[in-house]
Amino acid sequence: MSIKIQELTHTYNPGSPFETHALKNINLTIEPGEFIGLIGHTGSGKSTLIQHLNGLLKPTSGSIWIDGTDITKPGIKLKDIRKKVGLVFQYPEYQLFEETVAKDIAFGPANLNLDEQEIQKRVKEAMEMVKLPYEGLKDRSPFDLSGGQRRRVAIAGVLAMKPDILILDEPTASLDPRGRDEILDQIKTLHRQQQLTVILVSHSMEDIGRLVDRIIVMHQGTVALTGSPRTIFQQAEMLEEIGLGVPQITHLMKSMNQRGCALPEDVFTVEEAKEVILSYLRGSQHA
Amino acid sequence: MEMNQQKPIIEVKGLTFEYRSHDEADLIALKEVTLNVSKGEHLVVIGHNGSGKSTLAKHLNALLLPTAGTVLVAGMDTKKQELLWEIRQTAGMVFQNPDNQIVATIVEEDVAFGPENLGIDPAEIGIRVTNALHRVDMSDYRHKAPHLLSGGQKQRIAIAGVIAMKPACIIFDEPTAMLDPSGRREVVNAIRNLNREEGITVIHITHFMEEAVEAHRVVVMEDGQLVMQGTPREVFARVDELKALGLDVPQMTDLAAELRSEGIDLPEDVLTVEEMVNHLCQLKSKN
């Protein structure tokens, strides 16, 4: 399912002393099945942009096409948009409210007028997708679970809507390293198995470099850069100027090259760096 | 490191804490934890979600009181109700979400809030606010509204509010979890300066292993107990044990371990990009 954004502008509090131009003339196309990393410092417009994609915010001007439908037109039903576009907010576990895990996950689908059997089927599938044991947890209160489990319940609630486009705003903030890797690996699996279009907002350049097909860099309400991780992370100085950075491993490669090496700079993970450094060191032994 | 060896500023002895739960068995969050923190020390606490880090932190300024054992802050027993304000003035706390810690609509009023509650003379408060803002490099924002600041700036205002109380010790509970890369750098630099230049004892809880690299000592918590401690070099050299606990090591330490497993002659305790570059260049020149 594709997303097409044309000339999108959003101004908060227009005409008042607090007028803020949060988005300025954004043009973007996201292809079906793409895994997008959306980065930018706080206040760059990331959250404002994603809230437009499921109709939470209306543009000041411009249009947004989801799967060929202009969702900014009058008469569009928000329910239809939200069936297609699932949005997981920051700290989504704070929005859990039901007595049991199963009821909380069922809340979205229950509003789609599905029959009870279909709803329960979706709850079970969604819990399996985020690796929560259905039998063990369905009747538990979400408030008795750990932080990482609560976050999965919240993500399962969005997945139970069976969206074609999944948008996650910093889904791993304040999770420990294991919880972070589990959630990111599950998102990666969902993307691969179900051909979901995924938009991941993250401050971790390491996670972005490891996971996504394409990066969109936002700065001051505009799209500053877009391209593959390889092309984006070559612009280290520019990224640092706008409050971002490159993965540590990329930083290592660049530092080595400043000392006269000739290593590739489009390396983001420990595994890739290991291979590059081994061949660099061993290459010289045979020289 | 200049640390007063005679009398620790924080003494935790045999601390046990049980959370009361209404339907299930009481959860033992801390089990006989014993820990001393020296004056001027920079201590980092790591451990996965639910390991007891935050519960421990909340005991250090009497937000929680021990079920068994004692916590002494500058010799004061946190169980003594009449010492509560003196304890909180000695050990200040900075939390994860800056938005939950800011109370006023103008930066200087927010920073003055703590000292005002202590009944300090207004002229003295003015001096303290000036100093506190200067120390976190936020002097230019004195008359601004906090809600217009970035996450890193807001968090530094929260830190200034604690500094204005003139604490001997500050406990930071995941202060960078919600920040973008530049915000994280700003806050980490502010914490380091408070410790190195002002001699304030720092206890810093984090999931970002890179933030632990500059500490004097790292302690690792698991299941309510301290399971490892030492200098960052000593602790992070135990890559396999940390990974078994679901934790990370700094990426450079991880890379060094991977390369060592291939027979490359690198030390176990590489922590930073700069160290890695130096080691690799030396290896290369030997060949």
TrEMBL record, chain A:
Record bears the keyword RNA-binding: no
Keyword terms: ATP-binding, Cell membrane, Membrane, Nucleotide-binding, Translocase, Transport
Superkingdom in the source lineage: Bacteria
Domain ABC transporter: 3-245
SMART domains: AAA
Pfam families for the chain: ABC_tran
Keyword Metal-binding in annotation: no
Membrane topology label: Peripheral membrane protein
Listed EC numbers: 7.-.-.-
InterPro entries for this protein: AAA+_ATPase, ABC_transporter-like_ATP-bd, ABC_transporter-like_CS, ABC_transpr_CbiO/EcfA_su, ECF_ABC_transporter_ATP-bd, EcfA2, P-loop_NTPase
GO function terms (MF aspect): ATP binding; ATP hydrolysis activity; ATPase-coupled transmembrane transporter activity
PANTHER family associated with the record: ENERGY-COUPLING FACTOR TRANSPORTER ATP-BINDING PROTEIN ECFA2 (PTHR43553:SF27), HEAVY METAL TRANSPORTER (PTHR43553)
Protein family per UniProt: Belongs to the ABC transporter superfamily. Energy-coupling factor EcfA family.
Assembly with partners or alone: Forms a stable energy-coupling factor (ECF) transporter complex composed of 2 membrane-embedded substrate-binding proteins (S component), 2 ATP-binding proteins (A component) and 2 transmembrane proteins (T component).
Function summary: ATP-binding (A) component of a common energy-coupling factor (ECF) ABC-transporter complex.
Protein name: Energy-coupling factor transporter ATP-binding protein EcfA2
TrEMBL record, chain B:
Cited PROSITE patterns: ABC_TRANSPORTER_1 (PS00211), ABC_TRANSPORTER_2 (PS50893)
Localization terms from the record: Cell membrane
Keywords: ATP-binding, Cell membrane, Membrane, Nucleotide-binding, Translocase, Transport
Bilayer disposition of the protein: Peripheral membrane protein
Principal subcellular localisation of the protein: membrane
Gene Ontology molecular function: ATP binding; ATP hydrolysis activity; ATPase-coupled transmembrane transporter activity
Gene Ontology, cellular component aspect: ATP-binding cassette (ABC) transporter complex
One Pfam family, short name: ABC_tran
Name by which UniProt lists this protein: Energy-coupling factor transport system ATP-binding protein
UniProt-listed CDD domains: ABC_cobalt_CbiO_domain1
Annotated ABC transporter domain residues: 10-248
Annotated InterPro entries: AAA+_ATPase, ABC_transporter-like_ATP-bd, ABC_transporter-like_CS, ABC_transpr_CbiO/EcfA_su, ECF_ABC_transporter_ATP-bd, EcfA_1, P-loop_NTPase
UniProt record similarity statement: Belongs to the ABC transporter superfamily.
Positions in coiled-coil regions: none
